[in-house]
Amino acid sequence: MEQYLYLKRQLNFFSSVMIIFADVIGSGIFMVTGYVFGITENAFLVLVLWGLGGCVAITGSLCYAELLSMWPENGGEYAFLKKSMAHYHRF
Known about the structure:
mainly alpha; L-amino acid transmembrane transporter activity; Amino acid permease/ SLC12A domain-containing protein; transmembrane; membrane; AA/rel_permease1
């Protein structure tokens, strides 16, 4: 008698946010921390720099979200460049 086990396919909001968080941060947070602390020698400044980097990342993602809501097409950055710039600025 064969018994099949199936995983429940469920992805809630928290799981989605954590997957994106892990993709954005990755393992660089563990490798770069010592390097940045060696340059700054100030733990508070390291945290401030992380916060500034996070603000830059959020700003970039909001720009892409705005572009996607304006032009919901496949093609990524090429589709945005095709709509917004002249022919010679594209790839």
